Amino acid sequence: MAKELVNLILDYLKTLNVFYGDVRLVRIQEEVIHQEDGKVSLVRQEEDLGIGIRVIKNGAWGFAATALLTKEEAMKTAKLACQIAEASAKLKKEDVKLSEITPIQDTYQTPIEIDPFSVSLEEKINLLIECDEIMKKVKGVKKREGELYFYKKYQIFASTEGSFIEQTIYHTGGYILAEAIKGNVSGSRSYPGLRGGHYKAKGYEFIKELKLKENCERIAEEAVALTTARECPNIETDIILDGTMVAIQVHETVGHPTELDRVLGTEVSLAGTSHLTIDKLNKFQFASEIVSITADATTPGGLGTFGYDDEGVKAQKVFLIKDGIFSGYLTSRETAVVLNQTSNGTMRADSWRSIPLIRMTNINLLPGIWKLEDLFADTEEGVYFETAGAPSIDDKRLNYHISSEIGWIIKKGKKTEMIRRPSFSAISYELWRKCDAICDENYWDVWGVPNCGKGDPTQVMHVGHGASPARFRKVKIGG
Amino acid sequence: MLIKGEVNKIIDIAKKYLKGFEWEIGIDSTNIGTTRFANSIIHQNMSVHRPFMWIRIINKNRIGSATTTDLSEEGIKNLIERAINLSKSKYAPKLETPLPKKTKIERVSKKNIVSPKEREAAVAKIVEVCKKNNLDAFGVIHTINNSLAIFNSNGVNNYAFLNWTYTTITAMDGSASGFSFACEKDFYKIDFKELAKIACEKALMAKNPKDIEPGKYLVFLEEPAVCEIISFLAWLEFGAKRFYERTSLISKKIGKKITGKNITIYDDWRHKLTLGIPFDFEGVKRKKVILIKKGIAKGVVTDSYFAKKLKMKNTGHSLMQPAPWGPFPLNLVFEKGDKRKEEMLKSIDKGIYVTRFWYTRVVDPDKTLITGMTRDGTYFIENGKISYPIKNMRFLINIYETLENVKMIAREQKYYGEELFGVVAPALVIDNFNFQSKTEY
């Protein structure tokens, strides 16, 4: 029935004389289980179903979407998309052009071992309760939390050019958290730790891989210890960032500024622009020579992994930073024309009701050669940042600030004293130029960010970041 | 959006499958028209109809909850079946407080549907003003028609319908940018040309910014900057959850001084600038809640769960239940002062003028320490006038300490926020405002 409806809309769009049209029928199912202090406070199953229709008519874009999946409503929505395009056309400077694409008919599914929606609620909740009981035993812990999250998206993408693609994507993840309070000072520790959780394009097997129970006692003890730990000193020193910190840095300082729509100004109204302007492409020394960063929509397990993007462009891998030089953008069919290229397949919408935008896929810092223990041993003085907190960056992606949940003073090659919520700020490319060591593939993981905001209205996208710990020399830390 | 009659039909369908259960149903239905423009053309233009229905079923005191956008009979039946299945688990959350008692509240605004053509015409006015100033226009116009209905098996039968337009304009020439905005219930009351003029004036004043050193400065914060700070204070301090856990500072300061004497903050859906929905997501009537009065900490907002835990009154500030994050004030008002903005500016010998902030985040919740960047119009003030543009800077402030240092409060307030959450606030002059670092533009 869904396929018939999509084909009906495409046929109807052709009668409305569109230059181009595409239809996405999307069904998203989510399950969230949240426990606090041993009580299950939330078990919710969410379902989001609808159709989004995008057209180019009179040389301009129009988009309309509806949750009512009847033939009558679908035709009405298609017509509305055309009327909107006609209104847009009144203010165009030139007709929208799209880079070439070969129409494709295909299917894609995330490889999973265990369908997370087939696992009983009891099994999922038992895991969270067992985690809670371990954390509860640690003296001084005031608050415990745990959450599991499961996501399944079924989508049909079809275009008037002849593409017809079905995809089923699964994402799975979760976190545990312990908090302690002493007087007016709190200590908060989470695991696996990228602003709380870790998420992958995998099935329930990923929850088992996370080893949540095995880490409960450690994070609870660290939360208590943080309440008496000293604050971050205000100094210039060497810093070693764990994988989660590097992942967020890649996200904020490489992923967003290489989105070509931002560079061309179409996100000014909210997200801003980018300092990585087109004149800097293949010339600008963005980072030290050991730094190479790719956009790779084929990385196994990445939240930015798929078969095709929301314009029907096949998933691919491209360099954004190669040997330290800024060397590429994330593109769409429309923006790639500006560079005389074809799209590298990064257009995604967070639901049927959203317009596809250029979004990060898996933005990966390629692994280096170091063992983490060797990196500590090689650092005379410094601070180790562990478990990323909330970042902040200006609207051109230059002045970057971030804190972590916990830090450790490094002295003579060893982790010594614990510090609370250490932070640093730096100009993004200057920071990357100070990178002199990256850990090898044994420390590398593709971290999932399930809450990347962009667009207006804001769309929340799932993206991935491959990263391993890395060292940056002489960075100003503290407030 | 759904009119009341359509909502009633959906509830009647649901009731067929709900016999023998206690239940709560919410239906939030939105028609949103969005026109985004950049480089003086429309590049994204859309219209979306999104109904959203959620249900809480209470089955032998255990809760099952589910949501859907499929409001067909089959979709509603499926929604209810999913919620019932979840409620059967021995681990399902327990109902800690009974569902609210019978209420019937309605607030219906006159329907105000804005067409794509009308949005395009408004953008054309903006572009025309920007072109006259040799600037490009960027921004967005959202027109929203939203209905919210909350029903339950005890007889809660509440419905609100509202219209809302939110627009931002950024005028730009290279890196020099200026910003203006409007949040209005009536699209036709917005003077888009006037708004564009403000953005253009700011952009023209922002050319060739100078570098100044970070440090503590006297600042003039326009309303969007104040709203941003207060919205973060709300997340950290004004909800009952962190109060109950005693992790918020306000939880240890009720009845004591917490800010300067000139600060009063409250939540009131009746304020003419707020969205004005009179009931919360459990269907409880919203009450006005004084949070800080003349610098003294007075209270926080509650929902039924935290009201019981804290032995306080339910103030009607529940979010969609179950809500692990607790209640939240959605109609925050920072009390106005008595100064005209021109007077405030004139009184400043040396200081920094901030149009708005960007990417604000919490650094340390224990201290209400937040950081963010200035954006779209930051200037140096000398001798009571904007003297020259300066490069953007990062602030790092303790919110409560900052509210100790408020020197002047404007008598005009504005509502600023994206989509359905914002704050009503006046412009402020604040001393010792800490800028931690700078950027390159």
Helices and strands in order:
The complex is a heterodimer of chains A (479) and B (441).
Chain A: H1 2-15, E1 20-36, E2 39-57, E3 60-66, H2 71-89, E4 105-109, H3 121-136, E5 141-159, E6 164-182, E7 185-191, E8 198-200, H4 205-209, H5 212-226, E9 230-231, E10 235-241, H6 243-255, H7 260-263, E11 293-296, E12 317-322, E13 325-326, H8 333-336, E14 347-348, E15 357-358, E16 363-365, H9 372-377, E17 381-393, E18 399-411, E19 414-420, E20 423-427, H10 428-433, E21 435-438, E22 445-454, E23 459-467, E24 470-477
Parallel strand pairs in A: 4-6, 9-19, 10-17
Antiparallel strand pairs in A: 1-2, 1-5, 2-3, 5-6, 6-7, 6-8, 10-24, 11-12, 11-16, 12-13, 14-15, 17-18, 18-19, 18-20, 21-24, 22-23
Helix pairs in contact in A: 1-2, 3-5
Chain B: H1 4-16, E1 22-38, E2 41-59, E3 62-68, H2 73-87, E4 106-108, H3 116-132, E5 136-152, E6 157-173, E7 176-184, H4 192-205, E8 215-221, H5 223-237, H6 240-245, E9 265-267, E10 289-293, E11 296-297, H7 304-310, E12 331-334, H8 341-346, E13 350-364, E14 369-382, E15 385-389, E16 393-398, H9 399-402, E17 406-418, E18 421-438
Parallel strand pairs in B: 4-6, 8-13, 12-18
Antiparallel strand pairs in B: 1-2, 1-5, 2-3, 5-6, 6-7, 8-18, 9-10, 9-12, 10-11, 13-14, 14-15, 14-16, 16-18, 17-18
Helix pairs in contact in B: 3-4
Description:
The complex is a heterodimer of chains A (479) and B (441). With 479 residues, chain A is α+β, with helices and mostly antiparallel strands. Chain A has two domains: 2-226, 2-Layer Sandwich (PmbA/TldD fold); 230-477, no CATH class. In chain A, 21% of the residues lie in helices and 40% in strands. Chain A is built from ten helices and 24 strands. Chain A has helices at 2-15, 71-89, 121-136, 205-209, 212-226, 243-255, 260-263, 333-336, 372-377, 428-433; strands at residues 20-36, 39-57, 60-66, 105-109, 141-159, 164-182, 185-191, 198-200, 230-231, 235-241, 293-296, 317-322, 325-326, 347-348, 357-358, 363-365, 381-393, 399-411, 414-420, 423-427, 435-438, 445-454, 459-467, 470-477. In chain A, a hairpin with a 4-residue loop joins β22 (445-454) and β23 (459-467). The longest helix of chain A has 19 residues, at 71-89. Chain A starts with a helix and ends with a strand. In chain B, strands 1, 2, 3, 4, 5, 6 and 7 form a seven-stranded mixed beta sheet that branches. In chain B, strands 8-13-14-16-18 form a five-stranded mixed barrel. In chain B, a hairpin with a 4-residue loop joins β13 and β14. Chain B is α+β, with helices and mostly antiparallel strands. Chain B is 22% helix and 41% strand. Chain B has three domains: 4-196, 2-Layer Sandwich (PmbA/TldD fold); 208-227 and 337-438, no CATH class; 231-334, no CATH class. Chains A and B meet through β2, β3, α2, α3 and β17 of A and β1, β2, β3, α2 and α3 of B.
